[in-house]
Amino acid sequence: MNKNFAEQIRETLANQHTGHIIDLQEVINADGVHLGITIRSLDNSIAPTVYLDNFSENDTIDHIAEQIWELFTKYELPADDAVLDEIKALMDDRDEILRRVMPRISNSERSAEFAQTHVNRKILDLTITYHVPLKNIQGSWCITNQASDLLELYEEEIHTAAMMNLNSDVSVKKMSDVVGGFMPVDVNMMIVSNAEGIKGAAVMLSDTIEELAEEFHDNVVILPASVHEVIAIPESLCVNTPLMQIVREVNATTVSTEDFLSNSVYIFDRESEELRIAG
Hints:
Layout: H1 3-16, E1 20-29, E2 32-41, E3 49-51, H2 61-75, H3 80-91, H4 94-100, E4 102-107, H5 112-115, E5 120-123, E6 126-133, E7 140-142, H6 145-151, H7 155-167, E8 170-174, H8 175-179, E9 190-194, H9 207-216, E10 220-223, E11 230-234, H10 243-253, E12 266-269, E13 274-277
């Protein structure tokens, strides 16, 4: 979104809601750099950010401002103490971090700057970061390099715990059950995510993919639908199908910048039990 247009949205919100501090800023996270609006009440130093990627400049400024305010009121954070106290408690309890930590994956190129300051692992063209779900808000705390050093909690131990936790938080749905009569029920196309269906694409690295390979009696082709989910298909169903072209077209037309994962197609090899990018 054009920064001047975004500033007009910020000004509209600021004029309508004078009891709040409303800022426009660039936010760096695991999905890249995003333009967003932060809104916080005067008695709270913690503010949620509403990314502007999913709003269109073809819409009116007033309508966009109204939608942003609705999102803010839905996800407004509790008082500072509740969130900060929980993070402080985590900093004193490495075992609790290991019990709760979950992996997320993002596009390595887009998350390069974020990865410089956070514990991460590269796999193919993806980056794994490690997030601890918070109990007081609908959000998580991503483990930083600084926190890792202070707690003497290093990447290998974090990764092992995160992958164990992930394996107990997987959702596999048959595509035909989701789209109804649009697809024959005997076609093995699976939508794979975490239980919440939010930031769940890391399940492509879980034991579930190996289990699907055994169920399919075939290699598994993995299509990166978004950072939230992937689609798993037996390789034998993909012969002479231009999968990379399909992935690129879907990403270009239906996946938001914030939700983009990759333009690659991945294959889990049943025999070697290794994940690779399709050639």
